[in-house]
Amino acid sequence: MMALMSQPSSWWQRYGTLAQMAQAAVALLGFVAILFQINEIRTNNRHASARQAYLGYTDLAFKNPKFSQADYEAIKVGSREERVQYESFVSYFLYACEETVAAFADKREWQASCDYDLKPHLPFLCEKNAAQPAYLATYGVETQQWIKASLKTAGLTPPDCKLGKT
Predict the structure, then answer these.
(1) What are the pLDDT digits (tens) for 95-111?
(2) Following CA atoms 108, 113, 115, 116 in sequence, which dihedral angle do they give, to the nearest 10 degrees?
(3) Where are the domains of the chain?
(4) What does the alpha-carbon distance between residue 22 and residue 15 come to, in Å, rounded to a whole number?
(5) CA gap 157, 118 in Å, rounded
(6) Residue 159, preceding peptide bond in cis (omega within 30° of 0)
(7) Residue ranges of the alpha helices (H) in 6-71?
(8) What is the rounded distance in angstroms from the CA atom of residue 127 to the CA atom of residue 139?
(9) What is the pLDDT of residues 38-49, one digit of tens each?
(10) Which of 19, 52, 86, 100 is least enclosed, having the fewest CB within 10 Å?
(11) Distance CA 119, CA 107 (A)
(12) Phi and psi of 91, rounded to 5°?
């Protein structure tokens, strides 16, 4: 009788039956699939949010062409209200670019579009950064670096902060 009870068990019997191991493997695969699905939903939401922010900016630019292709020298001598509106316009533009470039990091056309739209705002950003460095700190590190590199490329430095005629 003692000989029957001391049979060595197979390795898999220590971890459960084959059916139990298969069930655990299926559960693990299901969990991994759910993680992938959550990540895909998060990515799709970020893309949709970024597109919405950029569409909001383009609508604002359409309604305010004096700000989208700004003559900053004229805006500076305009009313206080116009200067505040312009600063808000540029802030919205930078936010929209920050969102789209982050969401679509693999798509260069978003960065190219933002680069193109940034140029008329460089004199303002040059002066603003010189007078209030905390302004740029309200944006992410990548956006700060993008603006500073764009200022350098355009050759804008305080106190002049003027774009050359091209």
Answers:
(1) 999 999 998 888 889 99
(2) 140
(3) 27-154
(4) 11
(5) 16
(6) yes
(7) 18-63, 65-68
(8) 17
(9) 666 676 677 788
(10) 19
(11) 20
(12) -60, -45
Stated pTM of the model: 0.75
> Which pair of structure tokens corresponds to residue 95?
């936010």
Query: Which stretches within 64-121 are classed as H helix?
Result: 65-68, 72-76, 80-103, 108-118
Give the pLDDT of residue 62.
94
Distance of CA 65 to the CA centre of its chain: 25
Does the structure show a pLDDT above 60 at 117?
yes
- Determine the pLDDT at residue 9: 58
Rounded CA separation 42/90 (Å): 28
Directed axis angle between helix 122-131 and helix 141-154, to 10°? 110
Residue 50 tokens, joined: 């970024």
> How far apart are alpha carbons 157 and 126 in whole angstroms?
7
- Tokens representing 49 are 């949010």
On the question of pLDDT at 148 being above 90, the answer is yes
